[in-house]
TrEMBL record:
Classification via PANTHER family: 6-PHOSPHOGLUCONATE DEHYDROGENASE
Keywords: Gluconate utilization, NADP, Oxidoreductase, Pentose shunt
Species, as recorded: Micromonospora rhizosphaerae
Active site as annotated: K182, E189
Molecular functions per Gene Ontology: NADP binding; phosphogluconate dehydrogenase (decarboxylating) activity
Subunit structure: Homodimer.
Record function comment: Catalyzes the oxidative decarboxylation of 6-phosphogluconate to ribulose 5-phosphate and CO(2), with concomitant reduction of NADP to NADPH.
Protein name listed in UniProt: 6-phosphogluconate dehydrogenase, decarboxylating
Binding site for NADP(+): G9, L10, A11, V12, M13, G14, N32, R33, S34, V74, K75, A76, N102
Residue stretches making up the 6-phosphogluconate dehydrogenase C-terminal domain: 178-468
Pathway membership: Carbohydrate degradation; pentose phosphate pathway; D-ribulose 5-phosphate from D-glucose 6-phosphate (oxidative stage): step 3/3
Amino acid sequence: ATAQVGVTGLAVMGRNLARNLARNGFTVAVHNRSPERTRRLIAEHGGEGTFVPSESLGDFVDSLERPRAIIVMVKAGAPTDAVVNELVPLLEPGDIVVDCGNAHFAATRRREETLRGHGLHFVGTGVSGGEEGALHGPSIMPGGSAESYARLGPMFEKIAAQVDGTPCCRHIGPDGAGHFVKMVHNGIEYADMQLIAEAYDLLRAGMSASPAEIAEIFREWNSGELESFLIEITADVLAHTDAATGRPFVDVVLDQAEQKGTGRWTVQNALDLGIPITGIAEATFARSLSGHADQRAAARRAFAAASEKWQVEERGTFVEDVRRALLASKIVAYAQGFDHIRAGSREYDWNIDLGGTATIWRGGCIIRARFLDRIREAYDAEPELPTLLVAPWFAETVNAGVPGWRKVVAYAARAGVPTPAFSSSLAYFDALRAERLPAALIQALRDDFGAHTYRRVDRAGSFHTLWAGDRSEVEA
Ligand code: 6PG
């Protein structure tokens, strides 16, 4: 047994992770259900490092040093269970199975418990950064036991992206913590993308700007506070021309956004935990709305396109307002995402370090951004921060952006440009800072029709008004 780490499942993500490990000097056992992929990896990339190929799972397991560290990189769901079930009888106590797929954290918790019963470690690990990230340095979010991290950490930290000399990898917490954090990462990714899409749509509608012109605006934004991978590739995509038609590429892509489901999981779990991640939810629903082609066609026939022909007066001011609206809404989405992580951490007893999570998202992952340094600083300075919105830099930035944000949302409403994420983020901000919310009326109504009781502003306790009787108040 000579290999330090193994990878089974050699589709593009697995292959690139294996290559990354080998390029970093680790001896990597490789295996794939159909051996052609293993042979191709060796033929095409065998020279990049030391690989130990096996055609059977048994040989693969035998080729690994103990305690074994085996990365499983197959489709989430049934394929993961199939590989794990096949592996378990071949392993020995102390061995580690690492699931680097996009598994649901609840499935990871279940698998971790089962393998723990066999004396094995199961490490659900979030990996972000797509194919390129896997090869050149992803952001890595491992869950599982501290003991397993002691074995895996040095390898993962070496192959991860590095920012200012710090690896974009850290132990997130026990059992499903890594996959949970990756799930919320993806939810934030949905919000980020929806906000970018709304900004683009507004610039296009409000200034009759071409995609190429908007690409320039994004390019410029990318040199300021908004600097991030997604803003950078937005500029690239908007500048791209379709070869077949000569039209802007974005105009030939069907406008129905798909998803594999991690955003949906984030929203589902946030509902269970009672955390209002409205930006992520709007982004997820905006994708599903876009896919309802029949309803959209029917509504297009029934209603004229926009309520009012609309041109902004001053381009420069408008662009700056949209930038501020984007930045403020983005801050809201991240504040909500980090609230969600904190709630998950409490619910499942994970003790997740929020500043540390921001640290490992600064590089490698899809939402990597300059901005994440600010989040790290905010949580490092005040770990119990009630919401990211009130940390000094965020509060200042949001305050400075509010007038522009309101103008943009009002413009959009008047012009009939849908901005669900911009609008709901502004509503969230206004609700949080409101002196009084109409929730009082909701409570009164609940008490009226269902005797659900209410609390008072001036006295402790729960009360009920005898609505159908003499309307006197009784203590509940
Ligand atoms: C990443 C991404 C990745 C995700 C894709 C597609 O962090 O590298 O989040 O894990 O699968 O971005 O996700 P959707 O198909 O749900 O948009």
